[in-house]
Design goal:
Layout (H helix, E strand, L loop, with lengths): L3 H21 L9 E5 L2 E4 H17 L4 E4 L11 E9 L1 H6 L5 E8 L2 E9 L4 E6 L4 E3 L2 E3 L11 E4 L9 H14 L2 E3 L4 H9 L5 E5 L3 H13 L3 E3 L12 E5 L4 H12 L6
Parallel strand pairs: 3-4, 10-11, 10-12
Antiparallel strand pairs: 1-2, 4-5, 5-6, 6-7, 7-8, 8-9, 12-14, 13-14
Amino acid sequence: MIDLDKISHEVISTAKNAGTFIRNQTDKLRSIDVETKGNHDYVTYVDKTAEEQIVQSLQALLPEAGFIVEENTISKQGDAYNWVVDPLDGTTNFIHGIPVFSVSIALMHHKEVVLGVVYEVNLDECFSAVKGKGAFLNGMPIQVSNASALKDSLLATGFPYHDYTRMDSFIDLFKWCMKNTHGLRRIGSAAVDLAYVACGRFEGFYEYGLNAWDVAAGCLIVQEAGGQVSDFRGKDNYIFGREVVASNNNISHEFLNQIQKAFNPIKKH
């Protein structure tokens, strides 16, 4: 088995280096540098260059590993290990000068995430976790909040930007949460949302339409901080299933129950 603790320190350094590059480009980006990948889905040379830098570093660190990356700068599948990389989670924020965006790097061993790093660039906050070793913010241990009910909870979500088939359910849940919690926030980076659940700033987070690189690192960090993560059915298909619920343990049942009331997912027998 590889030394995950040692690798984690290198991944943190890699994420911070990419974050430094991204930060240095914030005042240099021009409108002509923005490309459209799809409806409300944008990419810049900053995303691509940051991903290339990250991939190069990770290849040297673990040559046998493959990659699942957002910007397709590499196509390689590993037999046992695969890196899951979002070089700039929150590109729309970055384009508009809104200071919430992050670098997200996870390592999967077969189907299990064993290492995760989320680096929030603007606050210089690095969230990290190794499977079974706890979760950390800038090297200090973190835990999910101890709020005991949804009525005492601040929640986060992300708005659908290409799949609008579940909008009615989303709005129903949104309205319920507005009326029955401390409120909802939409900050524009799922990786940061998950990291904030892990350190207790949010009690819970939910979103659909996400990709593996948006959530892989953050989900492990939440779990290692003592929280719960699932898909909308309460199952474990949250990395590739394009939907995720994360929360502290105290509200997890109540939170998932409200999500299921709104979305009414088909039960698998």
